[in-house]
């Protein structure tokens, strides 16, 4: 599959002046779906998007746990709406890091899927453009997550802001995201269907496999049964080997996700596969039952 778009630094250069190099904090938006333990181990900061059911608003991954979200999603008369974080949320996160003597690298969801990158850029300009960079990944979930993790690992090893940004840039073409959906209904209703619209009208038994790159959702192929779709998802991940990392994501389908992770563990250097549930914002469009893979190609 074609790689994601090249990262675009949307904020100021930062960290390029004289004097000693400052440590770097990596900020991500909540659609990166990075597991809590991994985020905390790398000192990453998360700025949540918002999910709204009618008049009720919830911060993604903060105010509504996944079980409660899925119960609402499957019973609601209308699909919830989602929105980018307020610029002030990014400003608060950036200021805390800057006031602590750190530079900031912010890694975001694709601009074609959300206005989040623009909100982060505006916040960077308002806070300290010379010390903040914003990298828009062209992808979502652990595709963006691997970009952020790569940058955060570089920062933990002493990378400057410019070096951590370069690490993020280099990771983008190494990231892939593939997913199989139980139905296209949620993606269509949410207006994020993109080129996958050509799959609408297929037989109900058809399971769509989609890829996310270049800021949009793209059709990969159609498979007739769920089991064959999972097999094809495994093959897509295997085709990308050798890998430096692999994540398996799901929406209320841990059984299939864990089985797929066990099946693909041989692809990673240490046999570890990240398994995580998609947060409410991404799950709103993926729908219940979705399973996805996010390979990080060897660099």
TrEMBL record:
Which UniProt keyword terms apply here? Lipid-binding
Q: Tell me which NCBIfam families the record gives.
A: DegV
List compositional bias (Low complexity) regions by residue number.
Answer: 1-10
Identify the stretch(es) annotated as Disordered: 1-23
Native source organism of the sequence? uncultured Thermomicrobiales bacterium
Which stretches are tagged as biased composition: Gly residues? 11-20
Q: What is the lineage of its organism?
A: Bacteria, Pseudomonadati, Thermomicrobiota, Thermomicrobia, Thermomicrobiales
**Which protein is depicted?**
DegV family protein
Question: Can you provide one Gene Ontology molecular function annotated for this UniProt record?
Answer: lipid binding
Q: Which residues form the signal peptide?
A: none
Q: Which InterPro entries match?
A: DegV (IPR003797), DegV_C (IPR043168), DegV_domain_contain (IPR050270)
Q: Which PROSITE patterns match?
A: DEGV
Keyword Ion transport in record: no
